[in-house]
Amino acid sequence: MFKKHDYTLGVLWAAAFFILPLPFIQTLEAGLPAAYQSEKLAIMAGTIAYVWLLLAIYLSTRPHWLDRLIGLPKVYMIHGIMSIGAIFLAWLHMEGAPSAGLIKQTGNAAFYLFLALALYSLVFMAGWLTKRVPFLAKIKRLLEEKVFRHEVSIWLHRLNLLAVLLVFVHIQLIPYIRAITPFMAWIWAATVFVFASYFLSLAKSRGKNNAELLSRRLVADNVLELTLKTDQDLADFEPGDYIFLSFPDEAGLEEPHPFSFVNLPRDEKQITLAIRGDGDFTRQLQELAPPVRARISPSFGRYQEAVAEQKPDQLLIIAGGIGVVPLLSVIDGNPDLPAQVFYNAHTRDSLIYEEKFLHWSSRGNFKSRCQVGRFKDEEVLGALPQNLSGLQVLIGGPQAMADHWIGLLKGEGLPAGQIYYEEFDW
């Protein structure tokens, strides 16, 4: 991570955990009747849980300003941690502040709905878990083929909105809480803001079709290249970015899915994506027959932001498999920056776009090695310059591969701030 990036991420964590709940806690404490002081901690826990749940919903709208600051993977990480933390606090609230009747029913219904959706999301929507537990990965693949396709998962996840509404009703039903006017003003304002943000984001994502699929071809075993033309302004598209793509007129492909682009699409208004068929959405893409109308989002990603922040003298790029895709446009978009690339895949057929590396080799400042199987540690370490201060390392590929190289490079004295890896496990 980078110093600026670390500072921003730390501020956001502090805001999420401490600053945002403060006005709710302060107004609630000031107005809480003496008769309920024994339940004070439990009531506070429930309040913080509600604030965290609202924040989690807001983060699910993929705020573009946050992506450029900390990256969407980190946004989703905060989203997941806040959701799990909120469920734990909600349980403490249930245990310490007993209720009855409709108040209890709405609170319990919300809690168990949140719990069920969290467990579902850990398996079907949080790739970091299934990639670490092979047994869960097998179950996920089997159930996705039969029942829980991508579209189903998206709609199930939206039931979190219903759970939040149940909590909102739960709060309105408690007379002594409803009587605390400043607290209720904060509750209403935060809830209206988050739901307005969510539905505005949903409306934007379901706007007009702004792209068209021109062609598709297999560039490797199970890797599909899509070329799309768009009338969207691409001035903000940066090297290494990705977009969310959907095909609203195609059953099963209506919900947006993230894919990195291979090229720099700013001038020609064409976007080239390379997509491996890992799930039901990506496999169905292989059946599309162009031309097909499509919808694309603004671009997301921090690879180029990382380069701009660090201002390195040279790049070392380590890529594995399909993880090379976003780094291709980084190489293309920084022709004056000396670069060395180590790119490997499991099989010869899985090495993609080798012709690009051949083309870039005509640059006097570019070197690359592409091979089947992993690189030995000493091969990569031998490419490190004696002075590490101007080096930046960009990594793309599986989490386990990234963890290995990050640990190895840090052990050689390369500061963590000069290594950037963008997780793509969601």
**Count of β-strands:** 11
Write out the strand line-up for the largest beta sheet, numbering strands in chain order. Answer: 4-3-6-1-2-5
Instruction: Report the principal-axis shape.
Output: globular
The end-to-end span amounts to 20 Å
- Please state the CA-atom Rg, rounded to the nearest Å: 24 Å
Unreliable sequence segments: none
Number of domains: 3
Query: Treating each run of at least 4 consecutive H or I residues as one helix, how many helices?
Result: 18
Strand proportion, as a percent range, falls in 15-25%
The top-level CATH class of the largest domain is: Mainly Alpha
CATH architecture of the largest domain: Up-down Bundle
pLDDT averaged over residues: 90
Structural class category: alpha/beta
Percentage of residues assigned to helices: 40-55%
CATH topology of the largest domain: Four Helix Bundle (Hemerythrin (Met), subunit A)
Walk me through what this model shows.
It is a single chain. The chain is α/β, with parallel strands linked by helices and 426 residues long. The chain contains 18 helices and eleven strands. α2 runs antiparallel to α3 (40-59) and α3 (40-59) packs antiparallel against α5.
Short structural description:
By secondary structure, this protein is of the alpha/beta class.
